[in-house]
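New to this. Please check this protein:
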Amino acid sequence: MKSPNDFFGSAPEVHLWAPGRVNLLGEHTDYNDGYMLPVATPQRTDVMAARSDDGRFHAYSATLDQAFSWAPDESSPPGFARYIEGCIRLLAQRGQPIPPLRLYVRSNLALSTGLSSSAALEVATLRALRALLKIDLDGVTLAQIAQQAEIRYAGVNCGIMDQMAASLADEEHMLFLDARTLDYRVLPLPANSELIVINSGVPRQLAESKYNERRAECEAAAGMLGVQALRDVTDPAAADKLPSPLKERARHVISENNRVLEACGDIDAARFGELMNQSHYSLRDDYQVSIAALDELTEVLRKDPDVYGARLTGAGFGGACVALCRTGTAAAAGRRAVDRVNAGGAAATLLIPAPTQ
């Protein structure tokens, strides 16, 4: 693994970072113009940058110990550099001259866990480019460019939530997001509560999953219901007229938006936990994106007397789960859940709160 000094030959010109995100409620709603409640993770991705002296772009990931190089008129090789190239190309298309650069990436965000390591990479890259090249770019616009980088260069037809969270969220508050208007506001977590995040140990491959298929099903359901997006329907029973599986997909999105809106009101931690449980059941049964490992893990958490509720977080098909628990109990409750499922052969790990060394 190369150090930054090895890679740059001296100190980098800029060093910026962006967090991952955990979504508390509002899963698979962002590409339906809906509502979400993410928070930032303490884990993050760092990007250091400097101008290149050989006329080529160079990207190195210390986390993966992978290096890529490409000429300005070439595409980057497949891999993490595609996300970086997307950010560079999209800034150039906005009229921003981008000289050849060297970019050094390191991250303590676990990959393929559903904590949005890709959005953290995109946002950290754009922050580094903004600082290095003195670009006038606000947080929302930056998130929009990051989203397009993932869609157009990494081939994932994602919504805007992950990039907005990486750009705007913090670890102490929920970030309410409206995907249609991009309005957002910062909200407190429920009183007397804190978060647990556990990696199930089953990697999630978003680009290779059925994510894009779910998005197409939602678009078809919206068309049959005569609305621009499923966000425009508020009664889950309206989905009953649709054929399966469009009925189930729409019912999840409609009910999930309602859960987010209720969670933004004056509710206590116990009710918030109930909404998280309902969200997981909907993702499991109607949206069919859960897996056995996540179902077991969330069920173990729900049975803990210190836990209010638990659900998968991220697109599903593997990855992590999030739970809301009583203040001061997260570390112990998280360890109990990990020990319980691992005794049965799982390979779960506690991510938040981060285990002490």
In short: The domain at 4-186 is CATH 3.30.230.10 (Ribosomal Protein S5; domain 2).
